[in-house]
Amino acid sequence: MGFPGLEAAYVWISIPFTMFYILGLWGNVMLLYVVSKEQTLQKPMYLLLCMLALTDIATSTAVVLKTLFIFWFNFKGITVGGCLTQIFFLYMVSVMHSAILVTMAFDRYVAICNPLRYATILRKGQIAKLGLLCLIKAVLFILPMTLLLSRLPFCANRVIPHTFCEPIALMKLSCGDITLHRTYCLVIVFVVSVLDLSLIVLSYCLIIRAILRISSKKAHQKALNTCTAHICVMLTYYTPGLFVNLAHLFGQSIASHVHIILVNLYLLISPMLNPVIYGVKSKELRDKLGKYTCRM
């Protein structure tokens, strides 16, 4: 249904949505292009950043295209198969995104705590394996949820007051018992969020301990600077995500269209900001991006 109650403003709402999507798409595609062209950028940190860019593109695309069809053409219909497909890809990519952030924290840990072995521990082949593990983890978590949802019996009411399909909204349309489905969804959110954040916190505790052992203040600053971009990306991903989930669980007084707007902005703004954050914080990447942008 899009944003129930705001149908008259769909054309105006579509303008920032389209702008955020195009900016995010352009930034992430440019990042992928520059890293693929520049041999000096084909390091573990930038290869992981490319994986993050791919998940950002997939996340925003999975949501925005369907939303724009609602805004521009009033095309609100979707099959059950299409709904399940959207749920699978959107949430699979979200879990993979979180797993890549954990891998990036491990990359920073090795770079600071074991710099002499960095090149041998994190080779290109190892990065590819870590990326594959992130994908396998995401599929193993989300595929059972999608299969469970596919077995739900649906009632006459098949209206989802949202811009995209989400598991809770689909469960509410069912005539059957959804206890198992709801429990599994909550377990996924808890396990993925808590486990991934715990691993990231552990990595940064070890990093801080290693930094404190360094006597030089200049070395302190340099070590911290290598982590700044990753910390900013984590904050733009986990903080709004936590706020949106808390608002969904406890913000019954919040109007439905406000919640839907917040969810959509969360899925659009983070992919748009990530290339900017790394472009600003990494001089090496910033210079290369500037060179290719000027050519265009």
Word description of this protein:
With 296 residues, the chain is an all-alpha fold. It has helices at 10-37, 44-73, 80-113, 118-121, 124-150, 167-172, 179-212, 217-250, 256-281, 283-295. The model has no long low-confidence stretch (mean pLDDT 83). Helices cover 80% and strands 0% of the residues. The protein is globular, with a radius of gyration of 21 Å.
- Low-confidence runs: none
Structural class: mainly alpha
Overall 3D shape: globular
> H/E element string?
HHHHHHHHHH
The count of DSSP E runs of length 2 or more, i.e. the number of strands, is 0
- Average pLDDT across residues? 83
N- to C-terminal separation? 39 Å
Helix-residue proportion? over 70%
Largest sheet: none
Tell me what portion of residues adopts beta-strand conformation: under 5%
- Rg over CA atoms: 21 Å
Can you count the helices?
A: 10
